[in-house]
Automatic annotation (TrEMBL):
Gene3D superfamilies: Vaccinia Virus protein VP39 (3.40.50.150)
Keywords: Methyltransferase, Transferase
UniProt entry tagged with the keyword Methyltransferase: yes
This protein's record includes keyword Oxidoreductase: no
GO BP: methylation
InterPro entries to which the protein is assigned, alphabetical: FkbM_mtfrase (IPR006342), SAM-dependent_MTases_sf (IPR029063)
Name of the protein in question: FkbM family methyltransferase
Residue ranges of coiled coil: none
MF terms in GO: methyltransferase activity
All copies of domain Methyltransferase FkbM, residue ranges: 65-204
Length: 235
């Protein structure tokens, strides 16, 4: 088994455990690079974080390295969840609770989930593309989970399901939401719906913690100190 290091996280995987596209992204360092760069604008010391869409656990592990942070993370795909368990264990993170499952708004129900070769394409959307198999998952109510665990930060990368989830959930006591938008699945109209739904809950788009499709929404915390941009030299 090869031990990769991706964004400072130990990743003990072999090339045959993920698709060629995922392996190339891991070995080149491009895997979830925007999320890795921006997530610390959303997560602060001693936060209690709910992450939806663990993937293989790299962003989970980055979050968990923040001082005093506790993380509850959910991954719907059972084989991906198994890889994430390995990554989290390899980084000696005892402050992460990882579960295989799915959180939704409303009463628990049975939902289909479509497993695809590229783990980042697996989703609840049957029409997103060819899939390897369909599995059934019993959902957990997100608002109850947030209340029961005193969550204050929500991080998610759930392949388009954020549109329905953010529109229908109440998100009690959440201060910051960091997510990847998937405009190729729901267009600008979907982004408008998400923005309007979060604005109605008291959240504003925060450009200081956003990077392209990886965006931060936050409650009003007043004016922050100016953070100068760092520009990379180009040829």
């Amino acid at each position: 088994m090869e031990l990769l290091t991706v964004h400072g996280i130990r990743v003990p995987l072999t090339s045959d455990e993920v698709s060629p596209a995922i392996w190339q992204a891991l070995t080149s360092g491009s895997y979830e690079a925007k999320e890795a760069k921006s997530v610390f604008k959303a997560v602060r010391p001693n936060d209690r974080v709910l992450e939806l869409g663990t993937g293989i656990g790299i962003i989970t592990s980055l979050i968990a390295k923040a001082p005093g942070v506790r993380v509850w993370s959910f991954e719907a795909n059972p084989s991906t969840a198994a890889l994430a368990h390995r990554v989290i264990s390899a980084n000696d993170l005892g402050n992460v609770v990882l579960a295989q499952g799915i959180l939704t708004a409303g009463e628990p129900c049975i939902l289909p989930f479509y497993v695809r070769e590229d783990l980042w394409m697996s989703s609840m959307d049957k029409n997103q593309g060819p899939y390897q198999r369909e599995i059934s998952l019993v959902s957990i109510n997100i608002d109850k989970f947030i209340a029961d665990h005193a969550i204050n930060v929500l991080v998610m990368d759930i392949e388009g399901a954020e549109r329905d989830l953010l529109g229908r959930s109440e998100l009690p006591h959440i201060e910051r939401i960091f997510l990847e938008l998937h405009d190729h699945l729901y267009g600008l109209s979907g982004i408008r719906e998400i923005t309007q739904a979060l604005a109605a809950k008291g959240f504003a788009y925060d450009p200081r913690g956003s990077n392209g499709p990886c965006v931060l929404f936050a409650k009003d915390e007043g004016v922050r100190e100016f953070e100068p941009e760092v520009f990379e030299a180009t040829d």
